[in-house]
Amino acid sequence: MRPGQEERRAGMTVLLAVLSALAVVVLFAALVFYLVQIIRTLENIGGETPRGYSSRSSYLSKIAFGVRAIEQQTGHLGPEVTRLNESLAQAAEGLGSIEAHLARTVEAAGRQEGER
């Protein structure tokens, strides 16, 4: 090797190490920037700021409140629907027997009409 070539290599190694460290710093800065943007967006959508309570309501909390209200208002429907289904099944059986009776009546009326 030539006498100045070793010094150049050492200088180049230091320069590459500094540039690599700078690239890592820029990468982390971009990561922090975008994570802060994501957190701001999520706070607007779904919750209060972690620094304390504010008077504003989030969209997500309004939706959750509405869903809980619907759940409370419709909670009693489950047992009622089961009973309604049982009653409708009994009504269907009753209508089936009425249908059979009417079919026999129509058949008998048809026979009477044919005898005349």
What's the layout of helices and strands?
Layout (H helix, E strand, L loop, with lengths): L2 H44 L12 H16 L2 H39 L1
- Uncertain segments of ≥5 residues (pLDDT<50)? none
Bulk shape: rod-shaped
Mean pLDDT: 85
**Strand composition percent:** under 5%
Helix content: over 70%
Please tell me the total number of domains.
2
Treating each run of at least 4 consecutive H or I residues as one helix, how many helices?
3
Return the string of H and E elements: HHH
The largest sheet, given as strand count, sense and whether it forms a barrel, is:
none
Quick one: how many beta strands? 0
Q: Specify the structural class.
A: mainly alpha
Compute the CA-based radius of gyration: 40 Å
How widely separated are the two ends? 131 Å
Describe the structure.
- By secondary structure, this protein is mainly alpha-helical.
- It has 2 domains: 1-50 and 57-75; 76-116.
- Helix content is 85%, strand content 0%.
- The mean pLDDT is 85.
Keywords:
single chain; 116 residues; mainly alpha
Give a brief outline of the structure.
Helices cover 85% and strands 0% of the residues. It contains 3 helices and no strands.
